[in-house]
């Protein structure tokens, strides 16, 4: 009789068999349900159902992945109440599986979904089961009592204590300094300072792996082997198998490309210098014959990659070989890179569009009080009839400033066979809103403190003066390339976001609505950052080999972190700070700012993207927070924000510019800024790299000669052959091929990328209003796409295309992106920093 009163609960879990490197069967697993409404007084948790074992159900295929739906069934007492969480035990001896989703059907036929999308490892390995909560989202003080302890235990289990090295299955999040960049075991030339935790080298914290220390220096951490693709990153933070295969495939192509260059140089016994502009164009135009020399590399990969992954990589390269097409900078006009208007336009619409600022004081002055050597007579004749005072008062003079931060480093930089200057470039806004360069100042440290050796160059189009002007522009572009890669790209997106991810995992339960909001904006970032530390920014890494800052690169990055402020990463605030916009009190303008250059592609498109992100965040937050008090009383959000400030960005804990997080406005502004950085800001500085830097003459990364000075031997060489002098000044063949290969890989979208306005699965939240607000967000992004297309077609907006004919699409959302549309597209805003 008692048995007849028990209710039947049926359920289903969906497992992806081909997700990740290996995903096994779930048939050896069991399921239990926690009640959300009935408390077990013995455990303090929700009442736990009996155990049910999975039965194999339907098998299907989606996007090339095998999907298996397992079913289960058990009975519960009448007072069991509403299901709130599922407990999954993987009882296989060794095999893990990827759990995509779970659902149960209650006796009254209500379907309850559970947040999953996670790896489940065997209990025998992890010594613990996995708990997944329903897709109802609660603020901490609204959590059903029966789930409260489970919510707390979930977060406790995710926090590390700095202990043992992480295992493959560990879901532990903790912080560490950047103590894994150097390799003192290889010798003194590979020693690098620890970044973070000091006044001299402050830095955001990274994800702790707890790998063992170096032998030569116990304060530094031993990095993984190059081929350790998991990088001690929690399993749910890793690339999918498809993305990993694409990444390896494109990297093979990059290695192949460099090997071709080296093989040709060796076979022809050529010096490491280009002989003509025609040679550069031939090698990097994408029109050269296909050469295959990668077999040796494939054999090495076969020895170190899992068999299944190697097969997937091999098949992918066979079906879809990645080829270097012509970068857009030369696709329509192979000499556009020499054009002064294009040189200036890229400061507004290129890969580093957020460094330029308006000039408020003339002449420019260094932070140490040293005045620029630029004089009024150098520029006033070129202001289209305006006086200097009139031009400044009308906000028509701008500066690209790479002076103050470089000066303290130049003596050390120039010991290494490179010839670096600190630069200032002044520009004038013409009546058609295009910019023209006025003057370039190149400076070196003088013979005593406070003294500088500076030269000033003015535009010229022919003869010796024109050739020297091109040399001066190359030095400016090298400065800008270093700043772009180390600061605009790595530091201000990748590095600064990582502590936010760690804090979110540690302090915000998956039941928290803010966790749900942020989750898609963190996809793959921890993994790609770990790869970057091992391949790009480590001692002897690719950036040290290709940038003129070489082994000082990360020190330079730490120096500029001193200037970083989270509140100034909000686009309207950034534009105001740089004098690229003024405040606008028009109530119909939600950004509160007005661009001084209306035809500023990054600013114009960016403000529209910023506005719709902020609207979406505001709509979302107001569904869960009634007022300021509800933000203050949210213990998880308060702990999250405190940890970001005091630990994740702990070297800036005492700064007064941090949001107090005492109002709903604070929360909305912080979340909007974070999502902007992870999505649109990163897209704007990353996915155009190949189109602009894939042609080395447009964006050299270092110079090997100074601009020639009359009366010197270098000037005699210059007069003999100005073109060859210019080519000898640029990076050599091997450095160039490595740099081009790198930007090609970084510019590739993954085929499984998820873009702004999309989620990887149907919106997994039990809230119809959220669904409606998200759909509104998506529709607004589609409208922005239409307006961007219209602006790019408007011939009066000359900065949208410029002499190179490159339409500005780096902030084009591309909400129509679908599976298999990866590669180099020059457009699309992924949700996260995923490459």
UniProtKB/TrEMBL annotation:
Cited InterPro entries: LipOase (IPR000907), LipOase_C (IPR013819), LipOase_C_sf (IPR036226), LipOase_Fe_BS (IPR020833), LipOase_plant (IPR001246), Lipoxygenase_dom_3 (IPR027433), PLAT/LH2_dom (IPR001024), PLAT/LH2_dom_sf (IPR036392)
Lipoxygenase domain residues: 137-835
MF (Gene Ontology): metal ion binding; oxidoreductase activity, acting on single donors with incorporation of molecular oxygen, incorporation of two atoms of oxygen
Protein name (record): Lipoxygenase
GO biological process, one term: oxylipin biosynthetic process
Coiled-coil ranges per UniProt: 767-801
Record Gene3D superfamilies: 3.10.450.60, Lipoxygenase-1, Domain 2, Lipoxygenase-1, Domain 3, Lipoxygenase-1, Domain 5, PLAT/LH2 domain
Keyword Oxidoreductase tagged: yes
Cofactor(s) this protein cannot do without: Fe cation
Lineage, uppermost ranks: Eukaryota, Viridiplantae, Streptophyta, Embryophyta, Tracheophyta
Region (Disordered): 201-228
Superkingdom assignment: Eukaryota
Signal sequence extent: none
UniProt record similarity statement: Belongs to the lipoxygenase family.
Keywords from the UniProt entry: Coiled coil, Dioxygenase, Fatty acid biosynthesis, Fatty acid metabolism, Iron, Lipid biosynthesis, Lipid metabolism, Metal-binding, Oxidoreductase, Oxylipin biosynthesis
Residue ranges occupied by any PLAT domain in the UniProt entry: 9-134
């Amino acid at each position: 009789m008692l048995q007849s009163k028990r209710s039947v609960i049926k359920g289903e879990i969906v497992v992806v068999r081909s997700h990740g490197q290996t995903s096994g069967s779930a048939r050896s697993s069991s399921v239990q349900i926690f009640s959300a409404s009935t408390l077990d007084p013995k455990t303090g948790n929700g009442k736990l159902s009996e155990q049910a074992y999975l039965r194999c159900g339907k098998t299907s295929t989606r996007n090339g992945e095998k999907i298996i739906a397992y079913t289960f069934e058990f009975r519960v007492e009448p007072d069991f109440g509403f299901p709130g969480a599922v407990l999954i035990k993987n009882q296989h001896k060794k095999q893990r599986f990827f759990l995509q989703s779970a659902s149960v059907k209650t006796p009254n036929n209500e379907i309850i979904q559970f947040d999953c999308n996670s790896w489940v490892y065997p209990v025998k390995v992890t010594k613990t089961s996995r708990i997944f909560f329903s897709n109802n989202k609660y603020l901490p003080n609204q959590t059903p009592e029966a789930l409260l302890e489970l919510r707390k235990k979930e977060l406790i289990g995710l926090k590390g204590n700095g202990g043992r090295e992480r295992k493959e299955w560990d879901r532990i999040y903790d912080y560490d300094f950047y103590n894994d960049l150097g390799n003192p075991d290889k010798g003194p030339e590979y020693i690098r300072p620890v970044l973070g935790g000091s006044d001299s080298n402050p830095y955001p914290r990274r994800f702790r792996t707890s790998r063992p220390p170096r032998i030569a220096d116990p304060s530094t951490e031993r990095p993984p082997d190059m081929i350790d693709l998991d990088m001690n990153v929690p399993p749910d933070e890793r690339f999918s198998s498809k993305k990993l295969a694409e990444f390896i495939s494109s990297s093979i192509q990059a290695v192949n490309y460099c090997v071709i260059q080296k093989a040709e140089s060796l076979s022809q016994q050529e010096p490491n210098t280009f002989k003509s502009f025609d040679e550069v164009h031939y090698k990097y135009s994408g029109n050269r014959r296909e050469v295959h020399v990668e077999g040796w590399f494939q054999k090495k990969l076969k020895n170190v990659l899992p068999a299944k992954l190697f097969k997937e990589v091999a098949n992918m390269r066979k079906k879809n070989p990645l080829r270097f097409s012509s970068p857009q900078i030369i696709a329509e006009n192979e000499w556009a890179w020499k054009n002064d208007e294009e040189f200036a336009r890229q400061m507004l619409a290129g890969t580093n569009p957020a460094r330029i600022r308006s000039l408020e004081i003339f002449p420019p002055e260094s932070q140490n009080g040293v005045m620029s050597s630029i004089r009024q007579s150098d520029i006033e004749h070129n202001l289209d009839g305006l006086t200097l005072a009139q031009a400044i008062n009308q906000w028509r003079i701008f500066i690209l400033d790479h002076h103050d931060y470089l000066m303290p480093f130049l003596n050390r930089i120039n010991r290494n066979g490179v010839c670096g200057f600190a630069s200032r470039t002044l520009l004038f806004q013409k009546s058609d809103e295009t910019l023209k360069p006025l003057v370039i100042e190149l400076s070196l440290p003088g013979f005593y403190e406070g003294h500088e050796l500076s030269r000033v160059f003015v535009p010229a189009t022919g003869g010796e003066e024109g050739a020297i002007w091109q040399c001066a522009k190359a030095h400016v572009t090298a400065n800008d390339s270093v700043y772009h890669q180390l600061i605009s790209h790595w530091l201000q997106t990748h590095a600064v976001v990582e502590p936010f991810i760690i804090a979110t995992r540690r302090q915000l339960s998956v039941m928290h609505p803010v966790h749900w909001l942020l989750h898609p904006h963190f996809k793959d970032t921890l993994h790609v950052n770990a790869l970057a530390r091992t391949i790009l920014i480590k001692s002897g890494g690719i950036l040290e080999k290709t940038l003129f800052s070489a082994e000082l690169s990360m020190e330079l990055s730490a120096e500029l972190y001193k200037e970083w402020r989270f509140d100034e990463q909000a686009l309207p605030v950034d534009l105001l700070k740089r004098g690229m916009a003024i405040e606008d009190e028009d109530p119909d303008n939600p950004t509160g700012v007005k661009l001084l250059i209306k035809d500023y592609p990054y600013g114009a498109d960016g403000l529209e993207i910023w506005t719709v992100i902020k609207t979406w965040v505001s709509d979302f937050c107001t569904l869960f927070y009634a007022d300021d008090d509800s933000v203050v009383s949210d213990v998880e959000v308060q702990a999250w924000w405190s940890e970001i400030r005091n630990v994740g960005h702990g070297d800036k804990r005492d700064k007064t510019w941090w949001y107090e997080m005492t109002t709903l406005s604070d929360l909305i502004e912080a979340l909007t800024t974070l999502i902007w950085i992870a999505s649109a800001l990163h897209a704007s500085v990353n996915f155009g790299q190949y189109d602009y830097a894939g042609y080395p003459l447009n964006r050299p990364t270092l110079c090997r000669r100074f601009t020639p000075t009359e009366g010197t031997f270098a000037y005699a060489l210059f007069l003999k052959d100005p073109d060859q002098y210019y080519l000898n000044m640029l990076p050599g063949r091997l450095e160039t091929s490595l740099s081009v290969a790198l930007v090609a890989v970084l510019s590739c979208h993954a085929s499984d990328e998820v873009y702004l306005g999309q989620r990887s699965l149907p919106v997994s939240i039990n809230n119809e209003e959220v669904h409606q607000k998200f759909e509104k967000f998506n529709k607004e992004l589609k409208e922005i796409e239409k307006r961007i297309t219209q602006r790019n077609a408007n011939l009066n907006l000359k900065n949208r295309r410029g002499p190179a004919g490159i339409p500005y699409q780096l902030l084009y959302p591309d909400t129509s992106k679908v599976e298999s549309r990866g590669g180099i597209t020059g457009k699309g805003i992924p949700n996260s920093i995923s490459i």
